[in-house]
Amino acid sequence: MTWTRRVMGRLLIVDDDGATTQTFARILALEGYDVRTATTAEVALCENDAWRPDAIILDLWMPFINGLGFLYRLRGREDRRDTPVVMVTGDQCLEDTIIDEIHELGAEVYFKPLWLEDLVTVVRKLVPVSRESALPHESPPSIAPSSLLN
Q1: In the list 15, 25, 40, 120, which could disulfide-bond 59, CB 3.0-4.6 Å?
Q2: Is the pLDDT of residue 31 over 90?
Q3: What is the reported pLDDT for 4?
């Protein structure tokens, strides 16, 4: 049997902490989003080019290319300049100059821990309802709320 599920939008989650990416991905998949993850900026840039997400949730402090470096590269691509981005960081002492730079590049800053309700609210602001689409698939979604606790 083929089911049709509503896809609220395509999200790319980029964080070098695999537990964070997987937790965010599970929560947002339950909310109806099509989600992909990357644990490096390099992989995220490739995913961005190949998959073209509607929005990106991006960690600030990652090895090699940090979130700001990723954001500069993203904004440097003509066809991806307007992709909505939220930068998340656990750095509660982030300098105002860095926050200003992130804002100048068109991204918002949120601080970890980002509670699940807040995550969903932020993503709903990023991806307008008009981007919803119906995608056929073979079975109903298999992610159960109890799997979030594992």
Answers
A1: 15
A2: yes
A3: 56
Long-range Cβ contact pairs of 22-30 (< 8 A, separation 24 or more): 23/148, 24/57, 24/119, 26/143, 26/147, 26/148, 27/116, 27/119, 27/120, 27/148, 28/119, 28/120, 28/123, 29/141, 29/143, 30/141, 30/143, 30/145, 30/148
CB 7 within 8 A of CB 137: no
Asked if the model's pLDDT at residue 98 lies above 90, the reply is: yes
Given a contact cutoff of 8 angstroms between Cβ atoms, the answer to whether 75 and 105 are in contact is yes
> What does the alpha-carbon distance between residue 57 and residue 31 come to, in Å, rounded to a whole number?
15
Q: From its phi and psi, is residue 52 left (phi > 0), alpha (psi between -120 and 50) or beta?
A: left
| Residue 69 to residue 74: CA distance in whole angstroms | 9
Q: Which burial class, exposed, middle or buried, applies to 34 when counting CB atoms under 10 A from its CB (0-12, 13-18, 19+)? A: middle
Annotated domain spans of the chain: 13-125
pLDDT at 1 over 90: no
